[in-house]
Design a protein that fits this description.
- It is a single chain.
- By secondary structure, this protein is α+β, with helices and mostly antiparallel strands.
- It contains four helices and eleven strands, in the order αααβββββββββββα.
- A five-stranded mixed beta sheet has the order 3-2-1-5-8, with no helix packed on it.
- Helix 1 packs across helix 2.
- The chain is elongated.
């Protein structure tokens, strides 16, 4: 039922991950509560306009309301909100943390937000990321990859382009080069702030082959809208393996020239 309400009532984007079903359920329940509150308060407003108009109440009532109906309604609303928080939202978060996938069985990706694009890094055919150090960070080396580390020679660096295999956990480590961004893939129901100096993980399991847009959910400057150019492409494992092999290692520069120029 919640799936139908999410797509037909709330017009949410197509769900393309198995980990997003409970998120959809939470969003639906929160919206149903908001709809109920909206209808209730509009009904009360119309009643108040009718009940307390000047013709029906020519004299002011200095005693006011003597019952506690409004208090009971507030307690009910607070109780429903507590149920949604403690019974739905927190368990979703706890489950995501407790069942974080093993990196050995997942596709691991580093994402670095910048004004106004998403830098993407893969470990390359050897499956091992090269060392990183802040002293190597430059316009041409946004991840700070150590150019002297052999493990990083085949690392793949791309711009606004993420490929992942279907039905396999994906771990994304999100950070930022400059200001606070927010890495959001609506179809996967994931969203994580990209904060300079921090590498924050998120994960999801894609279930539908296709292309899905990446958004920046945090206003990050005049070119904020340009960060919708990023795309996540979900393909079969065989096609993903071919794609990885087709990408030549990205050159790592310390001269300050961008590898994307």
């Amino acid at each position: 039922m919640t799936e139908w309400l999410a797509t037909h009532l709330l017009l949410m984007p197509k769900l393309a991950s198995s980990t997003g079903e409970r998120v959809d359920a939470l969003i639906v329940w929160v919206h149903l509560l908001m709809i109920a509150l909206f209808v209730g308060w509009v009904a009360y407003f119309l009643y108040a306009v009718w009940r307390f108009n000047q013709k029906r109440s020519p004299k002011a009532d200095y005693e006011g309301v003597k019952n506690h109906v409004s208090n009971y309604i507030e307690l009910i609303v607070a109780g429903v909100e507590a149920v949604l928080l403690l019974g739905v939202a927190i368990p979703i978060w706890a489950d995501a943390v407790d069942h974080f996938p093993d990196a050995k069985n997942a596709t691991v990706i580093y994402v670095m937000g910048q004004q106004y694009a998403w830098n993407v890094r893969y470990a390359g055919p050897d499956g091992v990321f090269g060392r990183q150090d802040m002293k190597y960070v430059s316009d041409g080396n946004v991840f700070g990859v150590d150019p002297n580390d052999p493990a990083g020679k085949d690392d793949i660096q791309l711009l606004n382009d993420i490929h992942v295999p279907v039905n396999k956990p994906v771990i994304v480590y999100v950070s930022s080069k400059d200001v606070i961004h927010s890495f959001k893939i609506s179809a996967m129901r994931v969203c994580q702030d990209a904060i300079p100096g921090l590498r924050i993980p998120l994960w999801f399991i894609p279930t539908q082959v296709g292309r899905y847009q990446i958004n920046c959910a945090q206003l990050c400057g005049f070119g904020h809208s340009a960060m919708t150019q990023g795309m996540v492409t979900v393909v079969s494992q065989a096609d993903y393996d071919k794609w990885i092999q087709s990408k030549s290692p990205a050159p790592v520069s310390t001269s300050g020239h961008s590898i994307f120029e």
